[in-house]
Design goal:
Shape of chain B: globular
CATH superfamily of the largest domain in chain B: NADH-ubiquinone/plastoquinone oxidoreductase chain 6, subunit NuoJ
Largest sheet of chain A: none
Number of domains of chain B: 2
Distance between the termini of chain B: 61 Å
Oligomer: heterodimer
Helix content of chain B: over 70%
Structural class of chain A: mainly alpha
CATH class of the largest domain in chain B: Mainly Alpha
Order of helices and strands of chain B: HHHHHEHH
Radius of gyration of chain A: 17 Å
Number of strands of chain B: 1
Shape of chain A: elongated
Helix content of chain A: over 70%
Largest interface: A-B, 69 and 83 residues
Amino acid sequence: MVPISYYLVLSAILFSIGVGAFLIKRNIITVFMSIELMLNAVNLTFVAFAHQWRHVSGQIFVFFVMVVAAAEAAVGLAIIIAIFRTRNTLNVDQVDLMKL
Amino acid sequence: MHLVLFFIFGGLCVAGALNLLLQRHPINSALSLIVVMTSLAVLYLLLGAEFLAAAQVIVYSGAIMVLFTFVIMLLNAGREEKTHGSKAAYIVGFPGAAAILGVLAYIFLKQSGNLGSAKLGEYLVTTSDLSRVLFRDLLLPFEVTSVLILIAILGAVALARKGHE
């Protein structure tokens, strides 16, 4: 028997690590990977609550999140390749054209 | 048994995520993210989501992470150079993330009694349960995702194509 709250705390830990990695990583690919980590943490919350309420909808939601994450990864990596072609760098500090 | 499995794979998850944070080479980060995603698949299985566990392994640790490692190797991404980064990220970001974690953990552990607990094998969503809802009640959203993926494919090809004449 594992309390559901343990699963929720685990997903909170994963989400916070994802936020931290998003903020301190300087490589654009790693920043993108930490977004995937945050999405996974939220998926764990959905599955835990689906188990608690004995309801399938939570798992359906995770399924749609996976689909959207796959589409997002494809487009995002294409954008990263385009950035690398034009700027020749993967460092987010050097891609600051829209910064004030 | 359930508790032991939870702590083993939950610990693997946290260790992989911390490794992602601490490694300086993107390929090491990608490999530790695969560890996180595969252990999450085991946790889904413990929560009775068998289809999602399989989909997690196939879609996340299979397809998406292969795409990531492929791009890392294609762009020949080297070690991250040490920069000072954004000051705001250090001053506001870290205490903010720690505060989110603290508040969430406090609330979840305080409400632990109301949330109940998960027993192994007590509740199992089979693939037929899931597909019954997906193909009967949610057929339209399911079909719309195919359009989304088609657009994503077209967008990826258009963006990654060489030369924009």
